[in-house]
Amino acid sequence: MFSSVRLRLTLWYALAFGLLLTCFSIYVLSSLSHDLRSAFDQTLMRTADATASYFDEFVERNNPAAGAAETIREFSHGKTRVAIFRGHEVIASNGANVVSLALRSNLVGSVRLGEYGMATDSERNERLAAVPIRINSVTYTVAVLESMRELSDELARMRQIVLFAMPAAFLLAALGGFFLAGKSLEPVVTISAQAERITAKNLDERLDVKSRDEFARLAAVFNALLSRLDKSFRVMREFMADASHELRTPLAIIHGEAEVSLSRERTVDEYRESISTIRDNSKRMARIVKDMLDLARADSGQQMLRREELYLDDVVTACCRSAQPLAQLKQIRLSCSADQDLSFQGDEELLRRMLVNLLHNAIQYTPSGGAVSVMLKRENHDGVLTISDTGIGIPQASLDRIFDRFYRVAEARTRADGGSGLGLSIVKLAAECHGGAVSVASRPGKGSTFTVRLPLDSQMMTS
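Request: output the structure for the sequence above.
Response:
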């Protein structure tokens, strides 16, 4: 029932408004009641003062009862009742209730001069004010009684108005809150409707929100997420297509060799040649699958480095030594120069793969009689590895994409040489996993230079 955000917002708004309205109404009624009662008491005390002054002015020295009677006749009107006491003796009154309340409240003779005594008869809803005066060394008490029925009726009407108005105001607030919540949540409805239409087939679509508030920012963040998803899906599709393309060739060769070998009886040498072809293509497939697995683990954050303390110069020297036969086979001069004792903590196997891939590419695409140079040196807190060749180079338009998976500068040359198009991706992965970076500079026909910069731990470096 309360799963709707609009309904919950309306209820919260109505509850907050109702609580505020209730507190405000209680405050207004309390203040109004206090003010009206204070005004009533002020009026009653002024009437008592006027009565006492009149009695003081017209009282006869030898006949105070006559003066009291005259005073009562003058000020008794409507529901006002007056009683004048001398001590505790009633000398004049026009109502038994004023005398009874004054005596019952112990106001006669107990109120000091200059002060007022107030009493209330709750049963009859009447209010009494008593004021003492002193005339000719005699203390008189003037008591004035008035009905509070009109005041009570007025307060009752105010309470009825408030009690009637509060539900109406609460209902209007709820309706207004429901309307405002709907208007405020319109962008959310729009975003939801547009998002429902977006699937994996149309990730290029974007949310269109006209507002410039927090919902516009939400739409912008969602659009950025869609862009990343679109890019990831596109890369994944390209990766799957390229991987299928790469694996199809060795699989076709293996299948073809097997079919040919089984088509008729063959000599031992022919079987040996077929099995050798199958073995080579199986190795190529295994290498492609391993590279794909490493890259997939890196993308998912599961690439675990087996860090150990090593010397970069030893790793570089060993890789150059292992690549020397391949360079001699192509009549390429391979030179290696490395600063000594470059201590480093890293994954030796991954670093060797990085170096072997770079050396293999440099030798593979350098014509016979060319040269490949490897240099490792320390620059501040970095170990900088530079591999330069005098090979065919890389076109300027391809420099930004050569580290992409399965990307080839020329479709024929890498596949013909047995490459998978993942070698440079592994190089970039190895450098970044160790907190470093790889860059390339190349000119077609002049050769290429790959530079790998790895941060050295200053505490691990030795001179």
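The longest helix spans residues 5-58.
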